[in-house]
C-alpha cells in the first residue's frame, strides 16, 4: 500500500465545480459540519438558517423540504420530526407544563390520546375530550389551565369532519393555542392558517411521501416566537430525520396534487357505490351527504383524501366482517394510508370510542393508485364471499 494513502484520500484537494442543477435536490448527509475557522464556529447559531452547525440542526436537503412544506401549508417556519406521532409529541412537549390542560377531540388519532394518557399524564398534564362537531362542548371543557387544543379534520377512523371555524373561535376567545393535524388535508384540502389556527402538523408519511416506505412528520407555524419555542424543544429532544428519507419525500411532493386528486376521485366513486350495498348501513366520507360533519367539509373544501370508513349492519358479527377483509385481494391489510396500494383495516369501535362509538362494525378503506373498476370488483367479490349467505 502506498504511504499514507488514507490521509491522501480523505483530504484530497479536488472540489467539483459549483452551479450544478438537476430536477432533484441533492442529498446532503452529515453529522459533522465543517467550519472554515474558529470564528465561524463560535458565531454560528443553530437556531438560524443562514449557515450550518450540525447535521441534526439541518442540511441543505432538510432546509429545502422544510421550506416546501411550510409553503404547502401556507406557513413561514417548519421543523421535521421522525414520524407524525413524533411531531404531535413535539408540539405537546413544547407547549405544555405540569398542571396544564390539553383538549383533544373525542375522535382523535389513537396514539395521540395514548400519549396524553401515559407520557403527558406522568408529567402532571391533564387531558380532556370534546365533541368536535359541537363548539359548545369545547367551550364547556376549557378552563384557566387550558393551554392547547388539538384539532383533527376529519376524525381518525370514524371520519367526522369538525366545525373548525367554530372550534377555533372558541379557543381564540379563551386565548388558547390551537394545533391542527392536517395529515388528511395535506395542505391541499383547505388552509388551516387562514382559519386562525396557530400550528399545523402533518404526517409526511402519508400523501407527501406517497410511497408507503417513509416515516416523517412536520410542524409548521407562522409566528416566529412559537416556532422558536418548538425549535428549542426539537433540539433538546435530539429529533432528526434521515437524508434519504427527506429525498424520498421531496421526490413525492412533485406528484402530490395529482395523486391526491386521483385517489380522491376513486375514493368518492367507491364510497358512493358501497353506500348502496345492502350489507352496508353507513359510509363515512366527508364529501358524502349525510356523513357526520359533511356541511363543515362543504363550507371549507372541494377536495377530499382517498380515505373513508364503512359501517356494516350490527347483525353481522365481527367474524363476518373480518372474513370480508380477509377475502380482499387488491386491498391489502395494513395500517397507514395514501400509498400506491389500497388498504383495509377493521376496527373495534367499542374499544376505541366506548359509548361514543357508532353502531356496527367498521372497516376503514384507503384508496391507492389501482384502477377504480379493479378495486370495485375486488370489493364486490369479497362482499359476496363474506355476506352472500347472510
Tag the structure with descriptive keywords.
five-stranded mixed β-sheet, single chain
SS-derived structural category = alpha/beta
Low-confidence stretches: none
Question: What is the chain-wise order of helices and strands?
Answer: HHHEHEHEHEHEEEHHHEHEHEEHEH
> Please, what is the average pLDDT?
94
What's the layout of helices and strands?
Blueprint: H1 5-10, H2 38-43, H3 60-73, E1 77-81, H4 84-95, E2 101-105, H5 110-122, E3 126-130, H6 135-141, E4 146-152, H7 164-173, E5 177-181, E6 199-203, E7 217-221, H8 224-237, H9 243-253, H10 256-275, E8 280-284, H11 294-300, E9 307-312, H12 318-327, E10 332-333, E11 343-347, H13 349-353, E12 361-366, H14 372-387
Parallel strand pairs: 2-3, 2-4, 4-5, 5-6, 10-11
Antiparallel strand pairs: 1-7, 6-7, 8-9, 9-12, 11-12
Helix pairs in contact: 3-9, 4-5, 4-8, 6-7, 12-14
Amino acid at each position: 500500500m502506498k504511504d499514507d494513502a488514507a490521509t491522501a484520500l480523505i483530504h484530497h484537494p479536488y472540489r467539483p465545480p459549483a452551479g450544478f442543477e438537476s430536477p432533484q435536490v441533492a442529498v446532503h448527509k452529515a453529522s459533522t459540519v465543517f467550519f472554515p475557522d474558529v470564528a465561524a464556529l463560535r458565531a454560528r447559531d443553530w437556531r438560524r438558517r443562514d449557515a450550518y452547525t450540525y447535521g441534526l440542526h439541518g442540511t441543505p436537503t432538510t432546509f429545502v423540504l422544510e421550506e416546501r412544506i411550510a409553503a404547502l401549508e401556507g406557513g413561514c417556519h417548519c421543523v421535521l420530526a421522525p414520524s407524525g406521532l413524533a411531531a404531535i409529541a413535539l408540539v405537546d412537549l413544547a407547549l405544555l407544563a405540569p398542571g396544564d390542560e390539553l383538549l383533544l377531540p373525542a375522535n382523535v388519532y389513537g396514539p395521540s390520546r395514548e400519549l396524553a394518557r401515559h407520557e403527558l399524564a406522568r408529567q402532571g398534564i391533564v387531558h380532556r375530550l370534546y365533541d368536535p362537531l359541537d363548539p359548545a362542548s369545547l367551550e364547556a371543557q376549557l378552563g384557566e389551565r387550558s393551554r392547547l387544543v388539538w384539532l383533527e379534520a376529519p376524525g381518525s377512523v370514524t371520519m367526522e369532519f369538525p366545525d373548525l371555524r367554530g372550534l377555533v373561535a372558541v379557543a381564540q376567545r379563551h386565548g388558547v393555542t390551537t394545533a391542527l393535524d392536517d395529515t388528511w388535508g395535506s395542505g391541499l384540502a383547505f388552509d388551516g392558517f387562514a382559519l386562525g389556527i396557530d400550528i399545523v402538523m402533518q404526517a409526511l408519511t402519508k400523501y407527501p411521501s406517497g410511497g408507503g416506505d417513509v416515516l416523517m412528520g412536520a410542524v409548521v407555524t407562522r409566528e416566529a416566537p412559537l416556532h422558536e419555542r418548538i425549535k428549542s424543544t426539537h433540539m433538546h429532544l435530539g429529533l432528526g430525520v434521515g437524508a434519504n428519507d427527506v429525498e424520498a419525500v421531496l421526490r413525492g411532493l412533485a406528484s402530490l396534487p395529482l395523486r391526491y386528486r386521483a385517489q380522491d376521485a376513486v375514493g368518492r366513486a367507491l364510497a358512493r357505490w358501497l353506500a348502496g350495498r345492502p350489507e352496508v348501513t353507513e359510509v363515512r366520507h366527508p364529501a358524502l351527504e349525510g356523513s357526520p360533519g359533511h356541511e363543515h367539509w362543504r363550507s371549507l373544501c372541494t377536495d377530499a383524501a382517498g380515505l373513508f370508513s364503512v359501517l356494516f349492519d350490527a347483525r353481522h358479527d365481527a367474524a363476518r366482517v373480518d372474513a370480508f377483509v380477509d377475502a380482499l385481494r387488491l386491498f391489502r391489510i395494513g395500517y397507514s394510508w395514501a400509498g400506491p396500494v389500497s388498504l383495509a383495516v377493521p376496527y373495534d369501535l367499542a374499544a376505541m370510542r366506548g359509548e361514543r362509538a357508532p353502531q356496527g362494525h367498521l372497516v376503514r378503506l384507503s384508496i391507492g393508485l389501482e384502477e377504480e373498476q379493479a378495486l370495485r370488483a375486488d370489493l364486490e367479490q369479497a362482499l359476496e364471499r363474506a355476506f352472500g349467505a347472510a
